[in-house]
Design goal:
This is Amidohydrolase. By secondary structure, the protein is α/β, with parallel strands linked by helices. The chain is built from 19 helices and 24 strands. Helix content is 31%, strand content 21%.
Length: 539
């Protein structure tokens, strides 16, 4: 089938645009003037873009789409301005949805820094006001800290004298009993009390989340779901294949897979999906990297920082994985030819992860394109080292919307000035991809691009931008979201550009992102999304 998009402003590469593009079957056949493209024989469908801007499909380099699907079905607590408001919403939700919460209530999204009456973290005493009959688990937006009610603690069978969970902590209150606050890997144990959504419900959630992504111009998601959200690997590898084999898969999906132990990872390589799974080169679904976690989050003060927090000097954060275990994971991955992508936020986590990566580099350097996901807190020396070693960075510029208000308090002005260094790292020659870490942030890519270009929060603060020397231009931001993310998955030259021979992932925008007021970028929406040569969304 041949589809012609004409009368458009088609972005090809920096400062180069054409009027029209021809799609044949799954790929871009030709680009050129309206006359050139419309003169092609046997065009099946002609789409007049009415002068609108056309860009390559956007590729979210790191997210959790399963978790996002769940969030779409939960009580909404992300915009609560007080703990009492959060309590009231949860109580109302329980009253209105008794069957769905009869075994427990889970939701994610609160942020203590957005509470207007206090910036304290909720405790079990707050959540006991929601219910003392069912377990209640409310997770912070970052996913690295949560609060439970007393019922949850009782079901876990822990008390003030219980040993801490490996790779995580639960706080003990003044009364000598757990106060309901769990951090890092301890969160996994707390959430285990809430019964998991069954596989058919997850299918509906995944499809709805995929539709939302496509409606917002996302054509590829590189998603960390196995090993973080679901743990039955054989069942869920099959789950994804079944969805895509049936034609219900909408967006391209690349697995980022986590494992709790090196032995589980070895099983995956030697007798699991890595050995036995079959994935065609241009299939909508692909296996991707091993996904590791080195530290926590800045907002929860669990990011691993070298010199302690300025507002909590004795706290260096949490090292999720020891150097020895990380070295072993990286060695096993390197021997098997598997890419590694690691969650790193603090400068301590960045440095230690680079060390583990570098130990596996031979004469060819970073041939497996090992990646630093987030890479927020950095000094100039770390940035230079990343670029020199050819390590890929998956940035989430939208994190600045919140973090600009806390990073100087947490890390000091000097270190803040070299952090979230989108432009400097690019100027040093590093390979950069963009993503959202959805559902930590919405997967809508345009607020993310707005953050990279303006370095302002959603209210336009600060007037000149937060350390504005790190602002990037629109071309750079779109290229990071397309070609950069494609490079991260070894797909450069195959997708990420509107050029002949590349996969036909295309988005038509309602506003010209290249010429509009930068403050308007966050409000841009697609009017059409094409994936693999098929129109999957049209407004």
């Amino acid at each position: 089938m041949k589809i012609a998009l004409y009368n458009a402003k088609v972005y090809v590469e920096r400062e180069k645009f054409v009027e029209a593009v021809l799609v044949e079957d799954r790929k871009i056949k030709a680009i050129g003037t309206n006359e050139e493209i419309l003169a092609t024989a046997d065009i099946d469908e002609k789409i007049d873009c009415e002068g609108k801007t056309v860009i390559p499909g956007l590729n979210d380099s790191h997210m959790h789409i399963f978790n996002f699907g769940e969030r779409m079905c939960q009580v909404k607590i992300g915009d609560c301005e007080t703990i009492d408001e959060m309590i009231d919403r949860c109580k109302k939700y329980i009253n209105e949805n008794p069957d769905s919460v009869k075994h427990g209530l889970y939701a994610q999204g609160w942020n203590q820094d957005y509470f207007t009456d206090s910036d304290r973290i909720p405790t079990r005493f707050d959540l006991d006001k929601i219910s003392t009959e069912i377990p209640v688990v409310l997770e912070r937006i970052c996913g690295h800290i949560l609060t439970t009610n007393t019922k949850t603690i009782e079901l876990l069978g822990i008390d003030g004298s219980s040993p801490q969970y490996p790779g995580g902590t639960f706080e003990i209150g003044e009364d000598g009993y757990p106060n309901g606050i769990f951090a890092e890997n301890a969160c996994t144990y707390a959430k285990s009390v809430i019964p998991k959504t069954d596989i058919e419900q997850r299918k509906k959630m995944f499809i709805e989340a995929s539709k939302y992504a496509a409606e917002h111009g996302i054509t590829t998601v590189q998603s960390n779901d196995l090993g973080t959200i679901v743990f039955d690997y054989p069942a869920y590898f099959k789950f994804f294949k079944d969805i895509y084999n049936s034609g219900e898969g909408i967006v391209r999906y690349r697995h980022q897979v986590s494992f709790e132990t090196v032995e589980e990872f070895k099983d995956y390589i030697e007798d699991g999906e890595f050995k036995n799974g079959k994935y065609d080169e241009d299939s909508l679904i692909q296996l991707g990297p091993l996904k590791l976690f080195k530290d926590g989050s800045l907002g929860a003060r669990t990011a691993l920082v070298r010199d302690g927090y300025k507002d909590d000097p004795t706290n260096n954060g949490i090292e999720w994985m020891s150097e020895e275990v990380m070295d072993e994971f990286c060695k096993v991955a390197s021997d098997a030819g598997i890419q590694v992508a690691t969650h790193v936020i603090g400068d301590g986590a960045v440095e230690k992860t680079i060390n583990s990566y570098e130990k596996t580099f031979g004469e060819e350097g970073n041939k497996l394109r090992h990646t630093l996901v987030h890479c927020q807190i950095t000094d100039k020396a770390l940035l230079e080292r990343i670029a020199k070693l050819g390590i890929v960075v998956s940035y989430q510029p939208i994190f600045l919307d919140y973090d600009m208000h806390i990073v100087e308090k947490r890390c000091g002005k000097e270190l803040a000035s070299t952090s979230y260094a989108f432009k400097t790292l690019g100027d040093l020659g590093a390979k950069i991809a963009y993503g959202t870490d959805c559902p930590v942030e919405d997967c809508n890519p345009f607020p993310n691009i707005y953050s990279a270009v303006t370095r302002k929060d959603s209210k336009g603060f600060p007037e000149g931008g937060f350390y504005p020397e790190e602002c990037v231009d629109v071309y750079t931001a779109i290229d990071a979201y397309t070609e950069g993310s494609a490079y991260m998955e070894f797909m450069e030259g195959k997708k990420g550009r509107i050029k002949p021979g590349q996969l036909a992932d295309i988005v038509v925008l309602d506003k010209d992102i290249f010429t509009c007021d930068p403050m308007e970028i966050r409000d841009i929406l697609p009017v059409m999304t094409m994936i693999d040569g098929k129109i999957v969304y049209k407004k």
